[in-house]
């Protein structure tokens, strides 16, 4: 599979994960009235499971059992790093939203934006790690 095809598929999986995560975040934060950090953590976990399997199977064409130390642990380590950054930013965004806006909808937009910005900051790094270290095999064509 070519680099461009993997990049396209990784991007498509990222979009799906963002949609899943942001719908979950809005649900937890806006509808369930969770605070920003727990809502962000739960949303990250909610979107992380399908993101792992879609990336592994569809974006990189891997099948069979996952290699725990080479695939699962690095994926969740990077997801956790994004989660920490996202929860940290969302916490500050939630506080900022409460201090400056009475509208829960506007507070949700601010928390949501902080969450997307945090995960977006790690997007390129994750692709490189996935492509070069995690999901490589003899059948993966290097550029």
Brief descriptors of the model:
mainly alpha; 0% strand; elongated; disordered C terminus
Number of strands: 0
Structural Rg: 16 Å
The biggest sheet amounts to:
none
**Approximate shape:** elongated
Q: How many separate helices?
A: 5
Regions with pLDDT < 50 over 5+ consecutive residues? Answer: 138-143
Write a short abstract of this structure.
The protein is built from 5 helices and no strands.
Structural summary, described in words:
The longest helix has 33 residues. The protein is mostly helical. Helix 1 packs antiparallel against helix 4 and helix 2 packs antiparallel against helix 3. The C terminus is likely disordered. The protein contains five helices and no strands.
